[in-house]
Amino acid sequence: MNNQEAINALQMVRQANPLVHNITNVVVTNFTANGLLALGASPVMAYAKEEVADMAKIAGALVLNIGTLNPTEVEAMIIAGKAANEAGVPVIFDPVGAGATPYRTETARNIASAVQLSVIRGNAAEIANTIGESWTIKGVDAGEGSGDVVSLAKKAAEQLKTVVAITGKEDVVTDGNTTYIIRNGHPLLTKVTGTGCLLTSVIGAFAAVERDVLKAAAAALVIYGVAAEIAAKNAGDEGPGSFQIAFLDALFRVGADEISRYGRIERVE
Ligand SMILES: Nc1ncnc2c1ncn2[C@@H]1O[C@H](COP(=O)(O)OP(=O)(O)O)[C@@H](O)[C@H]1O
Ligand SMILES: Cc1ncsc1CCOP(=O)(O)O
Ligand SMILES: [Mg+2]
């Protein structure tokens, strides 16, 4: 995986405008739809258990996000996930807040075992809690031991039989055998709610067009991070509000020049 392959994948997204079916949380719904549109994908949000299977089957990817979960929605997620599995549609999972409450943790584990995931994307604490490992938020914030994040990602990939993306200051993505670290992004991403959730849906857009799921996820991470760097430059030091708008614009405008110049993806053991 390299910058040129990420550029190619972005071109495929923009050409194909893949339909991304999201069952996501109420906080990020509008931002997610606008972010996918800006990138070049077609978002749809559909939640009713009566229609989720049909929608998932015609989508290029299904994104499940438990940010504001409730039992009705979780039931719909599992129905949609199983339908996507049957139809060969990639399923991307964001275990928002796994570890924060027992219900969230149990639900994250249930979804990850009931549905064959293509990618799970979360911060280190969420991924750790989804596979029953303990993790201290402090260690992540301090950026300590990226080696530990790599081991955690590999462990999760092995356990869940899926590609795992752990994001933070640096992002790690692995299928358990091949691992990349992506060193792009900007701290202002942490001051806008939903940037993690949108990223999970953006991974869905790439997985819809690139059947090598590891490459799809790595491409999404590098392009998203480069877009954030462009946005921070364009929005100056105005703050999160201007950054959020500039970030949508950057997802729309980011192209080969910036990705080849600023993309920082490295393969690690
Ligand atoms: N300190 C940071 N510096 C630069 N980019 C960051 C930083 N923290 C997170 N990011 C980026 O923000 C995006 C969302 O990741 P993250 O904050 O881990 O998700 P979540 O909000 O779900 O916890 C990712 O693209 C990640 O690379
Ligand atoms: C604030 C909040 N509360 C429940 S879901 C949500 C959004 C989380 O979004 P992200 O994980 O992308 O920051
Ligand atoms: Mg999140």
Descriptive notes:
The chain is of the alpha/beta class and 269 residues long. It is 55% helix and 15% strand. The protein has one domain: 3-Layer(aba) Sandwich (UDP-N-acetylmuramoyl-L-alanine:D-glutamate ligase), CATH 3.40.1190.20. It has a nine-stranded mixed sheet with strand order 2-1-3-4-5-6-7-8-9, sandwiched between helices. Helix 5 links the parallel strand 4 and strand 5. Helix 2 crosses helix 9 and helix 6 packs parallel to helix 8. The protein is globular. The protein starts with a helix and ends with a strand. Adenosine-5'-diphosphate binds next to helix 9 and helix 10.
Beta-strand fraction estimate: 5-15%
User: Count of DSSP E strands?
Assistant: 9
Count of helical segments? 12
Q: In the CATH hierarchy, what is the superfamily?
A: Ribokinase
Ligand set: adenosine-5'-diphosphate, 4-methyl-5-hydroxyethylthiazole phosphate, magnesium ion
- H/E topology pattern: HEHEHEHEHEHHHEEEHHHHE
Indicate the mean pLDDT: 95
Helix content estimate: 55-70%
Strand order of the largest sheet: 2-1-3-4-5-6-7-8-9
Class per helix and strand makeup = alpha/beta
Domain count: 1
Any idea what the shape is?
Answer: globular
Distance between the termini: 14 Å
User: What composes the largest sheet?
Assistant: 9 strands, mixed
